[in-house]
Amino acid sequence: MADIVDEKNVDEIAYHVKEILRLLGEDPEREGLVKTPVRVAKSLKFLTKGYQEDAVQIIKSAVFDEEYQQMVLVKDIELYSTCEHHMLPFLGKAHVAYIPNGKITGLSKIARVVETFARRLQVQERLTVEIRDCIQEALEPLGVAVVIEASHTCMQVRGVQKSHSVTTTSAFSGAFLTSSKTRSEFLNLIK
Predict the structure, then answer these.
(1) By CB neighbour count within 10 A (0-12 exposed, 13-18 middle, 19+ buried), where does 113 fall?
(2) Least C-beta-crowded within 10 Å: which of 5, 24, 125, 186?
(3) What residues have CB less than 8 Å from 62, skipping those under 6 apart?
């Protein structure tokens, strides 16, 4: 992971992780924990790398003229994010569709947009809207639909401890908002 993590601030974050270990009653100098602060720092840098990426530019890097005006759907995009309330993971899948208006983008760019926004401290509701708004801004399509289904470890391992709960959020624009037929087609396709 070291080669893909920006080393900026790793030492400072590691210092604070070491202090957290101490405050928890651990000995950060014991064998099993000596390298933990740096590992955690690098992990946090990786999990929040989306702050260094511009999602609109990701889409715009692969835009093509195309007169296709039917739904383009990329579904079951793996999603790994970090809850901003507890800094615990939430994971699941995103389903993203748009209806082109003369412009399409490379399909991998849709997954990269999901990844960019997911790799920030997040709440699922905002993540869903950010993905929709990014695609709407970058492509100006006839509509965008995003549904995210995720399990939140902050609900599973602490607090209410409900290990089988799944949270579903949705965000729609354009034709997905104004046409119940279009929205229903999308929802049927992601079942």
Answers:
(1) buried
(2) 24
(3) 105, 106, 109
**Whole-model pTM over 0.85:** yes
In the residue annotation, 152 being an active-site residue is answered as: yes
Residue 152 and residue 149: Cα distance in Å, rounded? 10
Strands 72-83 and 89-99: antiparallel
134 is catalytic: no
CA–CA distance from 67 to each of 1, 59, 70, 110 (Å)? 41, 18, 9, 19
Q: Among candidates 104, 179, 170, which has minimal Cα distance to 135?
A: 104
154 carries an active-site annotation: yes
Reported as a single tens digit per residue, the pLDDT across 98-130 is 999 999 999 999 999 999 999 999 999 999 999
Say which of 29, 66, 84, 137 is annotated catalytic: 84
Task: With a cut of 70, list the residues of the chain below it in pLDDT.
Answer: 1-6
Clarify whether 57 is annotated catalytic.
no
CA nearest 107: which of 146, 76, 74, 141? 74
Contact 62, 105 (CB under 8 A): yes
